[in-house]
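Duplicate of #3305? Posting structure anyway:
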């Protein structure tokens, strides 16, 4: 199939998707699922809609495999974050094609990927592709908020719909220049989000006579300062060791801190979260009256751990930084922190695509500082899930700035690259 046809087909589909408002909350993803269903059925695919709430459907389509090889899931989500039209230079739900880009909320996160994956499976179906194992397309709801009506719910209530050996999802594919060559970042692991709450205790009293009270807010300020000063030596895990190896050489543990400090700022900002704990106090509440000294102050900290680490592993260091004081520490729900192995047929397929499409460029593994829906698949089925959607035309720094922000757009060239990539992976794993 000529690539211009792939490009036009994906562009049209993306424009239609962008014109549907699926801002979450409330989501309303069913309108996107129905649009995709109509498109896929025209190519002979049968679709299934799964919905806990009628307005929030998840769509799953598949090309059944010959039963001779691994199954592959092309995963994406159809909900987006909010957009304020005042901040945009075009209507965020226009799907406008301008300057070689398709504009609209979700173009990068991640309706572009939705459209590319749908185009990939639809065009393969039309060609009569019979994969070794099932090729599955899932466009799910509720990724941006997570109230358990999207992939988490599917994995639990309809596991047969999404149980697969391999998965390609969002969260990677940026092309960056490091160590003298271009490399594409492939996300193979994600940090764990493990927030905690500090309840800082004092004694309330009238604010006109502070001496008779013990201000919990003032105590909390000291504790926040100590948390902000918490430093742990950077540490390599298999993913980051492989990253350094791909870029040149793996520093000895004692050298790591010095090596990281010597990196250019943008590289350092990217690598640092992959080397240890990230901790940010983000919320605080104390007295609700101007004239009442608070006896209790509640501080919530966003805390991200390396995959493999648990809250218990870092609690000692956090308590040591806080020192003796009048507080109690309470962990809030931890989520994510999963990883997939590095040496897999999916990795090889990604590497082969890059080698052919962008000679001289390589692929390196990265640990995402956040997390995606991939962790549900890894936890439920042990699926090998990577975040990879190659992007070559748009500058990765610009793309990072546009996600969840105004004037979000995707380069048509990158959309087409995504379709070719997903077709390549499906064809390679499904041989
Ligand atoms: Zn997303």
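Output from current build:
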């Amino acid at each position: 199939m000529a690539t211009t046809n792939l490009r036009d087909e994906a562009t049209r589909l993306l424009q239609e998707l962008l014109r549907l408002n699926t801002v979450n909350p409330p989501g309303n993803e069913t309108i996107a699922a129905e649009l995709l269903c109509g498109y896929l059925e025209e190519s002979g695919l049968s679709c299934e809609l799964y919905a806990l709430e009628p307005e929030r459907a998840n769509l799953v389509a598949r090309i059944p495999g010959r039963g001779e090889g691994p199954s592959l899931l092309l995963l994406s989500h159809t909900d987006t974050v909010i957009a304020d039209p005042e901040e945009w230079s075009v209507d965020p739900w226009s799907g406008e094609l301008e300057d070689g880009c398709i504009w609209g909320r979700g173009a990068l996160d991640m309706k572009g990927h939705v459209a590319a994956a749908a185009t990939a499976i639809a065009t393969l179906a039309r060609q009569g592709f019979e994969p070794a194992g099932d090729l599955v397309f899932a466009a799910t709801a509720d990724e941006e908020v997570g109230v358990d009506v999207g992939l988490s719910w599917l994995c639990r209530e309809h596991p047969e719909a999404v149980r697969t050996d391999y998965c390609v999802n969002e969260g990677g594919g940026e092309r960056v220049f490091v160590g003298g060559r271009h490399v594409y970042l492939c996300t193979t692991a994600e940090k764990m989000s493990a927030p905690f709450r500090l309840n800082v205790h004092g004694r309330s009293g009238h604010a006109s006579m502070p001496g008779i009270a013990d201000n919990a807010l003032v105590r909390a300020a000291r504790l926040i300062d100590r948390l902000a000063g918490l430093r742990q030596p950077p540490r390599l895990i298999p993913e980051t060791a492989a990253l350094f190896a791909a870029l040149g050489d793996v520093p000895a543990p004692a050298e790591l801190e010095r090596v990281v400090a010597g990196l250019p700022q943008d590289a350092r900002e990217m690598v640092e979260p992959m080397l240890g704990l990230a901790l940010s106090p983000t919320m605080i509440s104390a007295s609700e009256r101007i004239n009442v000294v608070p006896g209790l102050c509640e501080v919530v900290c966003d805390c991200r751990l390396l995959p493999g680490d648990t809250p218990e592993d870092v609690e000692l260091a956090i308590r040591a930084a806080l020192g003796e004081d009048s507080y109690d520490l309470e962990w809030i729900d931890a989520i994510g922190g999963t990883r997939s192995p590095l040496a897999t047929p999916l990795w090889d397929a990604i590497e082969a695509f890059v080698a052919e499409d962008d000679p001289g460029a390589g692929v390196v593994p990265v640990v995402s500082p956040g997390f995606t829906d991939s962790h549900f698949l890894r936890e439920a089925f042990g699926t090998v899930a990577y975040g990879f959607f190659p992007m070559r035309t748009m500058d990765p720094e610009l793309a990072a700035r546009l996600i969840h922000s105004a004037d979000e757009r995707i380069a048509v060239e990158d959309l087409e690259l995504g379709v070719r990539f997903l077709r390549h992976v499906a064809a390679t794993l499904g041989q």
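Confirmed duplicate; merging threads. The chain has a mean pLDDT of 96. The chain has two domains: 3-178+337-429, 192-232+276-336.
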